[in-house]
Protein backbone atom coordinates (compact mmCIF):
# COMPACT_ATOMS: atom_id res chain seq x y z
CA UNK A 1 0.00 0.00 0.00
CA UNK A 2 2.86 2.38 0.84
CA UNK A 3 4.45 1.88 -2.58
CA UNK A 4 1.07 2.51 -4.25
CA UNK A 5 0.68 5.83 -2.40
CA UNK A 6 4.18 6.87 -3.46
CA UNK A 7 3.35 6.03 -7.08
CA UNK A 8 0.14 8.05 -6.80
CA UNK A 9 2.05 11.09 -5.50
CA UNK A 10 4.61 10.83 -8.31
CA UNK A 11 1.81 10.32 -10.86
CA UNK A 12 0.18 13.48 -9.47
CA UNK A 13 3.45 15.34 -10.01
CA UNK A 14 3.60 14.13 -13.62
CA UNK A 15 -0.06 15.00 -14.31
CA UNK A 16 0.30 18.50 -12.85
CA UNK A 17 3.37 19.27 -14.95
CA UNK A 18 2.42 17.52 -18.22
CA UNK A 19 -1.38 17.75 -18.37
CA UNK A 20 -2.27 20.72 -16.17
CA UNK A 21 0.80 22.67 -17.36
CA UNK A 22 1.42 23.80 -13.79
CA UNK A 23 4.74 25.30 -12.83
CA UNK A 24 7.12 22.51 -11.62
CA UNK A 25 7.71 24.25 -8.26
CA UNK A 26 3.98 24.49 -7.53
CA UNK A 27 3.58 20.89 -8.75
CA UNK A 28 6.23 19.74 -6.27
CA UNK A 29 4.51 21.64 -3.45
CA UNK A 30 1.11 20.10 -4.17
CA UNK A 31 2.58 16.61 -4.59
CA UNK A 32 4.58 16.93 -1.35
CA UNK A 33 1.50 18.02 0.64
CA UNK A 34 -0.62 15.27 -0.90
CA UNK A 35 2.07 12.65 -0.25
CA UNK A 36 2.47 13.73 3.37
CA UNK A 37 -1.25 13.54 4.09
CA UNK A 38 -1.76 10.24 2.22
CA UNK A 39 1.21 8.62 3.96
CA UNK A 40 -0.11 9.47 7.42
CA UNK A 41 2.10 12.38 8.41
CA UNK A 42 0.23 14.56 10.96
CA UNK A 43 -1.18 17.63 9.26
CA UNK A 44 0.73 20.01 11.51
CA UNK A 45 4.00 18.27 10.55
CA UNK A 46 3.55 18.44 6.78
CA UNK A 47 4.48 22.11 6.48
CA UNK A 48 7.45 21.65 8.82
CA UNK A 49 8.77 18.73 6.76
CA UNK A 50 8.42 20.75 3.56
CA UNK A 51 10.28 23.71 5.04
CA UNK A 52 12.99 21.46 6.44
CA UNK A 53 13.50 19.71 3.12
CA UNK A 54 13.65 22.94 1.15
CA UNK A 55 16.07 24.58 3.57
CA UNK A 56 18.38 21.58 3.87
CA UNK A 57 18.84 21.14 0.14
CA UNK A 58 19.05 24.83 -0.77
CA UNK A 59 21.50 25.41 2.08
CA UNK A 60 23.98 23.17 0.29
CA UNK A 61 23.32 24.51 -3.18
CA UNK A 62 22.41 28.19 -3.30
CA UNK A 63 26.02 29.40 -3.41
CA UNK A 64 27.04 26.84 -6.05
CA UNK A 65 24.09 27.40 -8.39
CA UNK A 66 23.95 31.19 -8.10
CA UNK A 67 27.70 31.77 -8.47
CA UNK A 68 27.76 29.22 -11.30
CA UNK A 69 25.09 31.20 -13.13
CA UNK A 70 26.98 34.45 -12.59
CA UNK A 71 30.24 32.95 -13.83
CA UNK A 72 28.57 31.46 -16.91
CA UNK A 73 26.86 34.73 -17.76
CA UNK A 74 30.13 36.65 -17.51
CA UNK A 75 31.96 34.08 -19.68
CA UNK A 76 29.26 34.62 -22.31
CA UNK A 77 28.95 38.40 -22.08
CA UNK A 78 32.71 39.04 -22.07
CA UNK A 79 33.28 37.16 -25.32
CA UNK A 80 35.37 34.45 -23.62
CA UNK A 81 33.08 31.73 -25.00
CA UNK A 82 33.42 33.15 -28.51
CA UNK A 83 37.21 33.26 -28.16
CA UNK A 84 37.33 29.61 -27.04
CA UNK A 85 35.09 28.52 -29.92
CA UNK A 86 37.07 30.37 -32.59
CA UNK A 87 40.38 29.08 -31.20
CA UNK A 88 39.22 25.47 -31.29
CA UNK A 89 37.90 25.89 -34.82
CA UNK A 90 41.31 27.09 -36.01
CA UNK A 91 43.08 24.37 -34.01
CA UNK A 92 41.07 21.43 -35.38
CA UNK A 93 40.52 22.73 -38.92
CA UNK A 94 37.63 22.05 -41.31
CA UNK A 95 38.33 18.29 -41.59
CA UNK A 96 37.70 17.76 -37.87
CA UNK A 97 35.07 20.43 -37.47
CA UNK A 98 32.70 18.18 -35.51
CA UNK A 99 35.44 17.48 -32.97
CA UNK A 100 36.05 21.21 -32.63
CA UNK A 101 32.36 21.80 -31.91
CA UNK A 102 32.28 18.95 -29.37
CA UNK A 103 35.28 20.32 -27.48
CA UNK A 104 33.78 23.80 -27.60
CA UNK A 105 30.58 22.50 -26.02
CA UNK A 106 32.51 20.58 -23.36
CA UNK A 107 34.75 23.46 -22.30
CA UNK A 108 32.21 26.27 -22.54
CA UNK A 109 29.43 24.05 -21.19
CA UNK A 110 31.18 23.56 -17.85
CA UNK A 111 30.43 27.08 -16.52
CA UNK A 112 27.33 27.75 -18.67
CA UNK A 113 23.86 26.46 -17.86
CA UNK A 114 22.31 24.54 -20.74
CA UNK A 115 19.83 27.15 -21.97
CA UNK A 116 22.45 29.89 -21.87
CA UNK A 117 24.95 27.68 -23.70
CA UNK A 118 22.36 26.74 -26.31
CA UNK A 119 21.37 30.32 -27.09
CA UNK A 120 25.00 31.46 -27.08
CA UNK A 121 26.71 28.69 -29.04
CA UNK A 122 24.12 27.40 -31.52
CA UNK A 123 24.27 30.66 -33.53
CA UNK A 124 28.06 30.20 -33.67
CA UNK A 125 27.48 26.71 -35.06
CA UNK A 126 25.20 28.21 -37.72
CA UNK A 127 27.89 30.71 -38.64
CA UNK A 128 30.42 27.89 -39.03
CA UNK A 129 27.89 25.93 -41.10
CA UNK A 130 27.41 28.83 -43.51
CA UNK A 131 31.12 29.58 -43.67
CA UNK A 132 32.15 26.01 -44.59
CA UNK A 133 28.91 25.14 -46.45
CA UNK A 134 28.22 22.13 -44.26
CA UNK A 135 24.84 20.79 -43.05
CA UNK A 136 23.76 22.64 -39.91
CA UNK A 137 22.82 19.48 -38.01
CA UNK A 138 26.18 17.88 -38.84
CA UNK A 139 27.98 20.88 -37.35
CA UNK A 140 25.64 21.58 -34.46
CA UNK A 141 24.88 18.14 -33.03
CA UNK A 142 28.34 17.52 -31.47
CA UNK A 143 28.05 20.89 -29.76
CA UNK A 144 24.60 20.07 -28.36
CA UNK A 145 25.70 16.59 -27.26
CA UNK A 146 28.51 18.15 -25.22
CA UNK A 147 26.22 20.79 -23.70
CA UNK A 148 23.68 18.11 -22.78
CA UNK A 149 26.30 15.86 -21.17
CA UNK A 150 27.81 18.66 -19.07
CA UNK A 151 24.29 19.64 -17.97
CA UNK A 152 23.42 16.14 -16.83
CA UNK A 153 26.76 14.81 -15.59
CA UNK A 154 29.00 17.56 -14.27
CA UNK A 155 28.77 19.78 -11.18
CA UNK A 156 28.25 22.69 -10.66
CA UNK A 157 25.21 22.22 -12.92
CA UNK A 158 22.02 22.16 -10.81
CA UNK A 159 20.93 18.52 -11.03
CA UNK A 160 24.30 16.80 -10.45
CA UNK A 161 25.20 19.35 -7.77
CA UNK A 162 21.87 18.69 -6.01
CA UNK A 163 22.36 14.94 -6.26
CA UNK A 164 25.84 15.21 -4.76
CA UNK A 165 24.30 17.04 -1.80
CA UNK A 166 21.45 14.56 -1.38
CA UNK A 167 23.64 11.45 -1.54
CA UNK A 168 26.55 12.82 0.47
CA UNK A 169 28.83 12.25 -2.53
CA UNK A 170 32.14 14.05 -3.08
CA UNK A 171 31.87 16.95 -5.52
CA UNK A 172 35.46 16.61 -6.76
CA UNK A 173 35.29 12.84 -7.24
CA UNK A 174 31.92 13.10 -8.98
CA UNK A 175 33.39 15.70 -11.32
CA UNK A 176 36.43 13.50 -12.04
CA UNK A 177 34.35 10.38 -12.69
CA UNK A 178 31.96 12.54 -14.69
CA UNK A 179 34.75 13.60 -17.03
CA UNK A 180 35.88 10.00 -17.46
CA UNK A 181 32.38 9.06 -18.60
CA UNK A 182 31.47 12.33 -20.34
CA UNK A 183 34.28 12.37 -22.90
CA UNK A 184 33.51 9.00 -24.59
CA UNK A 185 29.78 9.72 -24.32
CA UNK A 186 30.21 13.04 -26.14
CA UNK A 187 32.36 11.38 -28.81
CA UNK A 188 29.71 8.71 -29.48
CA UNK A 189 26.71 11.08 -29.47
CA UNK A 190 28.61 13.91 -31.20
CA UNK A 191 31.33 13.39 -33.83
CA UNK A 192 30.46 9.70 -34.43
CA UNK A 193 26.68 10.27 -34.65
CA UNK A 194 26.79 13.55 -36.59
CA UNK A 195 27.67 12.06 -40.04
CA UNK A 196 24.35 10.17 -40.02
CA UNK A 197 22.54 13.53 -39.97
CA UNK A 198 24.05 15.02 -43.13
CA UNK A 199 20.99 14.20 -45.23
CA UNK A 200 18.52 15.88 -42.89
CA UNK A 201 17.58 19.22 -44.40
CA UNK A 202 17.92 22.16 -42.05
CA UNK A 203 17.66 25.80 -43.02
CA UNK A 204 18.34 27.82 -39.87
CA UNK A 205 16.93 31.32 -39.93
CA UNK A 206 19.55 33.99 -40.53
CA UNK A 207 18.15 35.74 -37.48
CA UNK A 208 19.86 33.11 -35.38
CA UNK A 209 23.30 33.59 -36.90
CA UNK A 210 25.80 34.87 -34.39
CA UNK A 211 26.87 38.48 -34.39
CA UNK A 212 30.42 37.95 -33.17
CA UNK A 213 32.32 40.65 -31.40
CA UNK A 214 35.38 42.07 -33.14
CA UNK A 215 38.57 40.14 -32.33
CA UNK A 216 40.01 43.24 -30.67
CA UNK A 217 37.22 43.20 -28.06
CA UNK A 218 37.70 39.57 -27.04
CA UNK A 219 39.78 38.43 -24.06
CA UNK A 220 42.89 36.35 -24.80
CA UNK A 221 42.57 32.60 -25.26
CA UNK A 222 44.68 31.94 -22.17
CA UNK A 223 42.51 34.20 -20.02
CA UNK A 224 39.31 32.74 -21.48
CA UNK A 225 40.28 29.11 -20.98
CA UNK A 226 41.77 29.54 -17.51
CA UNK A 227 38.79 31.52 -16.20
CA UNK A 228 36.18 29.17 -17.68
CA UNK A 229 37.95 26.07 -16.36
CA UNK A 230 39.03 27.46 -12.97
CA UNK A 231 36.18 25.74 -11.04
CA UNK A 232 37.21 22.41 -12.53
CA UNK A 233 40.90 22.98 -11.80
CA UNK A 234 40.18 23.95 -8.20
CA UNK A 235 37.78 21.06 -7.54
CA UNK A 236 40.12 18.44 -8.98
CA UNK A 237 43.21 20.02 -7.41
CA UNK A 238 41.74 20.24 -3.93
CA UNK A 239 40.36 16.70 -4.25
CA UNK A 240 43.86 15.39 -4.98
CA UNK A 241 45.23 17.40 -2.05
CA UNK A 242 42.57 16.14 0.34
CA UNK A 243 43.54 12.55 -0.45
CA UNK A 244 47.27 13.32 -0.24
CA UNK A 245 47.33 15.20 3.07
CA UNK A 246 46.59 13.23 6.28
CA UNK A 247 43.58 14.48 8.26
CA UNK A 248 45.76 15.24 11.28
CA UNK A 249 48.03 17.54 9.23
CA UNK A 250 47.86 21.22 10.14
CA UNK A 251 46.94 22.16 6.55
CA UNK A 252 44.05 19.68 6.38
CA UNK A 253 41.35 22.13 7.67
CA UNK A 254 42.50 24.77 5.18
CA UNK A 255 42.37 22.29 2.28
CA UNK A 256 38.89 21.18 3.36
CA UNK A 257 37.77 24.82 3.44
CA UNK A 258 39.13 25.59 -0.04
CA UNK A 259 37.74 22.29 -1.39
CA UNK A 260 34.18 23.19 -0.38
CA UNK A 261 32.21 23.62 -3.66
CA UNK A 262 30.73 26.93 -2.51
CA UNK A 263 34.18 28.36 -1.76
CA UNK A 264 35.51 27.03 -5.07
CA UNK A 265 32.74 28.81 -6.96
CA UNK A 266 33.17 32.03 -5.00
CA UNK A 267 36.93 32.09 -5.66
CA UNK A 268 36.31 31.37 -9.36
CA UNK A 269 33.71 34.12 -9.61
CA UNK A 270 35.93 36.68 -7.85
CA UNK A 271 38.77 35.83 -10.21
CA UNK A 272 36.49 36.08 -13.26
CA UNK A 273 35.18 39.44 -12.03
CA UNK A 274 38.74 40.71 -12.25
CA UNK A 275 40.08 38.80 -15.28
CA UNK A 276 37.05 39.17 -17.59
CA UNK A 277 35.63 42.32 -16.04
CA UNK A 278 37.64 44.91 -14.17
CA UNK A 279 40.87 44.07 -15.99
CA UNK A 280 39.08 44.71 -19.30
CA UNK A 281 37.72 48.11 -18.27
CA UNK A 282 34.27 46.97 -17.14
CA UNK A 283 32.91 48.92 -14.20
CA UNK A 284 31.71 47.18 -11.07
CA UNK A 285 28.21 48.54 -11.74
CA UNK A 286 28.16 46.91 -15.18
CA UNK A 287 29.37 43.61 -13.77
CA UNK A 288 26.77 43.59 -11.01
CA UNK A 289 24.06 44.16 -13.62
CA UNK A 290 25.30 41.06 -15.46
CA UNK A 291 25.14 39.09 -12.23
CA UNK A 292 21.64 40.36 -11.45
CA UNK A 293 20.39 39.15 -14.84
CA UNK A 294 22.11 35.80 -14.23
CA UNK A 295 20.26 35.26 -10.95
CA UNK A 296 16.95 36.00 -12.66
CA UNK A 297 17.76 33.31 -15.22
CA UNK A 298 18.12 30.58 -12.59
CA UNK A 299 15.52 31.63 -10.01
CA UNK A 300 13.07 28.97 -11.23
CA UNK A 301 15.78 26.30 -11.11
CA UNK A 302 16.35 27.12 -7.44
CA UNK A 303 12.63 26.81 -6.75
CA UNK A 304 12.44 23.44 -8.53
CA UNK A 305 15.39 22.19 -6.49
CA UNK A 306 13.68 23.41 -3.32
CA UNK A 307 10.45 21.66 -4.30
CA UNK A 308 12.30 18.41 -4.91
CA UNK A 309 13.88 18.74 -1.47
CA UNK A 310 10.41 19.11 0.06
CA UNK A 311 9.09 15.93 -1.58
CA UNK A 312 12.22 14.02 -0.59
CA UNK A 313 11.82 15.13 3.06
CA UNK A 314 8.21 13.95 3.09
CA UNK A 315 9.37 10.53 1.90
CA UNK A 316 12.05 10.51 4.59
CA UNK A 317 9.86 11.68 7.50
CA UNK A 318 7.10 9.19 6.71
CA UNK A 319 9.57 6.31 6.55
CA UNK A 320 8.73 5.68 2.91
CA UNK A 321 12.31 6.02 1.69
CA UNK A 322 13.41 3.25 4.04
CA UNK A 323 10.45 1.07 3.05
CA UNK A 324 11.30 1.51 -0.63
CA UNK A 325 14.94 0.76 0.04
CA UNK A 326 14.03 -2.48 1.84
CA UNK A 327 11.74 -3.44 -1.02
CA UNK A 328 14.32 -2.70 -3.68
CA UNK A 329 16.79 -5.03 -1.98
CA UNK A 330 14.77 -7.95 -3.28
CA UNK A 331 14.94 -6.75 -6.90
CA UNK A 332 17.37 -8.67 -9.06
CA UNK A 333 18.77 -5.50 -10.58
CA UNK A 334 21.97 -3.54 -10.09
CA UNK A 335 21.17 -0.39 -8.02
CA UNK A 336 22.91 1.84 -10.59
CA UNK A 337 20.78 0.36 -13.37
CA UNK A 338 17.66 0.67 -11.21
CA UNK A 339 18.34 4.33 -10.50
CA UNK A 340 18.91 4.98 -14.21
CA UNK A 341 15.70 3.18 -15.16
CA UNK A 342 13.51 5.06 -12.67
CA UNK A 343 15.00 8.38 -13.77
CA UNK A 344 14.51 7.55 -17.45
CA UNK A 345 10.83 6.76 -16.96
CA UNK A 346 10.21 9.99 -15.03
CA UNK A 347 12.19 11.99 -17.61
CA UNK A 348 10.12 10.65 -20.50
CA UNK A 349 6.91 11.38 -18.58
CA UNK A 350 7.81 14.83 -17.23
CA UNK A 351 10.30 16.20 -19.76
CA UNK A 352 12.59 18.01 -17.33
CA UNK A 353 16.00 16.47 -16.68
CA UNK A 354 16.30 18.35 -13.38
CA UNK A 355 12.87 17.26 -12.14
CA UNK A 356 13.53 13.65 -13.17
CA UNK A 357 16.88 13.52 -11.41
CA UNK A 358 15.73 15.13 -8.19
CA UNK A 359 12.52 13.10 -7.98
CA UNK A 360 14.50 9.87 -8.33
CA UNK A 361 16.90 11.05 -5.64
CA UNK A 362 14.08 11.19 -3.10
CA UNK A 363 13.15 7.60 -3.89
CA UNK A 364 16.60 6.07 -4.22
CA UNK A 365 18.56 7.93 -1.51
CA UNK A 366 18.38 5.14 1.11
CA UNK A 367 20.26 2.81 -1.26
CA UNK A 368 23.43 4.79 -0.56
CA UNK A 369 23.60 3.46 3.00
CA UNK A 370 21.74 0.16 2.71
CA UNK A 371 23.38 -1.23 -0.42
CA UNK A 372 26.91 -1.42 -1.73
CA UNK A 373 26.80 1.45 -4.23
CA UNK A 374 29.20 4.32 -4.80
CA UNK A 375 27.28 7.60 -4.28
CA UNK A 376 29.39 9.39 -6.91
CA UNK A 377 28.45 6.81 -9.55
CA UNK A 378 24.82 6.97 -8.39
CA UNK A 379 24.84 10.69 -9.20
CA UNK A 380 26.14 9.94 -12.70
CA UNK A 381 23.74 7.06 -13.29
CA UNK A 382 20.78 9.29 -12.47
CA UNK A 383 22.33 12.09 -14.54
CA UNK A 384 22.48 9.79 -17.56
CA UNK A 385 18.89 8.63 -17.08
CA UNK A 386 17.69 12.22 -16.79
CA UNK A 387 18.67 12.81 -20.44
CA UNK A 388 16.69 9.90 -21.92
CA UNK A 389 14.61 10.54 -25.08
CA UNK A 390 13.70 14.23 -25.06
CA UNK A 391 10.37 14.74 -26.86
CA UNK A 392 7.28 17.00 -26.95
CA UNK A 393 7.16 17.75 -23.22
CA UNK A 394 10.74 19.05 -23.10
CA UNK A 395 11.51 22.70 -23.83
CA UNK A 396 14.87 21.69 -25.29
CA UNK A 397 13.05 19.69 -27.98
CA UNK A 398 11.22 22.77 -29.21
CA UNK A 399 14.26 25.04 -28.94
CA UNK A 400 16.14 22.64 -31.19
CA UNK A 401 13.28 22.38 -33.69
CA UNK A 402 12.78 26.12 -34.00
CA UNK A 403 16.44 27.15 -34.07
CA UNK A 404 17.39 24.53 -36.65
CA UNK A 405 14.08 24.96 -38.51
CA UNK A 406 13.44 21.22 -39.03
CA UNK A 407 10.29 19.08 -38.97
CA UNK A 408 9.08 17.27 -35.86
CA UNK A 409 9.94 13.95 -37.51
CA UNK A 410 13.51 15.06 -38.18
CA UNK A 411 13.78 16.53 -34.67
CA UNK A 412 12.98 13.10 -33.24
CA UNK A 413 15.43 11.41 -35.66
CA UNK A 414 18.21 13.78 -34.64
CA UNK A 415 17.74 15.53 -31.29
CA UNK A 416 15.67 12.86 -29.50
CA UNK A 417 17.94 10.08 -30.74
CA UNK A 418 21.06 11.98 -29.68
CA UNK A 419 19.69 12.39 -26.15
CA UNK A 420 18.89 8.68 -26.02
CA UNK A 421 22.42 7.80 -27.15
CA UNK A 422 23.78 10.06 -24.38
CA UNK A 423 21.59 8.32 -21.77
CA UNK A 424 22.53 4.78 -22.84
CA UNK A 425 26.23 5.50 -23.39
CA UNK A 426 26.38 7.30 -20.05
CA UNK A 427 24.89 4.28 -18.29
CA UNK A 428 27.40 2.03 -20.01
CA UNK A 429 30.24 4.23 -18.82
CA UNK A 430 28.93 4.19 -15.24
CA UNK A 431 28.62 0.39 -15.18
CA UNK A 432 32.11 -0.07 -16.63
CA UNK A 433 33.60 2.39 -14.14
CA UNK A 434 31.78 0.56 -11.34
CA UNK A 435 33.86 -2.55 -12.13
CA UNK A 436 37.05 -0.71 -11.20
CA UNK A 437 35.90 1.31 -8.17
Rounded radius of gyration (Å): 21 Å
Which ranges are low-confidence, i.e. pLDDT below 50, for 5 or more consecutive residues? none
Order of helices and strands: HHHHHHHHHHHHHHHHHHHH
Give the total of domains: 1
Give the beta-strand count.
Answer: 0
The secondary-structure class comes to mainly alpha
- Discrete helix count: 20
Search tags:
globular; single chain
Brief overview, please?
With 437 residues, the chain is mostly helical.
Model description:
This protein has helices spanning 2-18, 24-38, 43-77, 80-92, 97-109, 114-132, 136-153, 158-167, 171-189, 221-244, 252-259, 261-277, 284-317, 320-328, 335-350, 353-364, 367-370, 375-385, 395-404, 408-434. With 437 residues, it is an all-alpha fold. It has one domain (2-434). α4 (80-92) crosses α10 (221-244), α5 (97-109) runs parallel beside α7 and α9 runs parallel beside α18. The chain is globular and about 65 Å long. The two termini are 37 Å apart. The mean pLDDT is 87. This is Gnt-I system high-affinity gluconate transporter.
Amino acid sequence: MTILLVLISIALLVVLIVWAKLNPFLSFMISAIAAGLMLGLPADQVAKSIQKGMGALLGDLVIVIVTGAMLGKLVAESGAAQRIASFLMRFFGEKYITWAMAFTGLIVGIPLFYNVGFVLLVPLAFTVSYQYRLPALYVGMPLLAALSVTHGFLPPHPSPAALVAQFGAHMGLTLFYGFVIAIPTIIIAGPLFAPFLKKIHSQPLKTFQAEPKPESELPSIGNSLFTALLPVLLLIGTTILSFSIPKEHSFSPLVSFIADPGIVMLVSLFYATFSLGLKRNQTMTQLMEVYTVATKDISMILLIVAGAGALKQIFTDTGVSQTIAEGLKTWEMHPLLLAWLITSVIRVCVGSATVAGLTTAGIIAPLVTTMNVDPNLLVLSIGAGSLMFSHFNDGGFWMFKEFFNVSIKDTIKSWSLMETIVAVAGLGGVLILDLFI
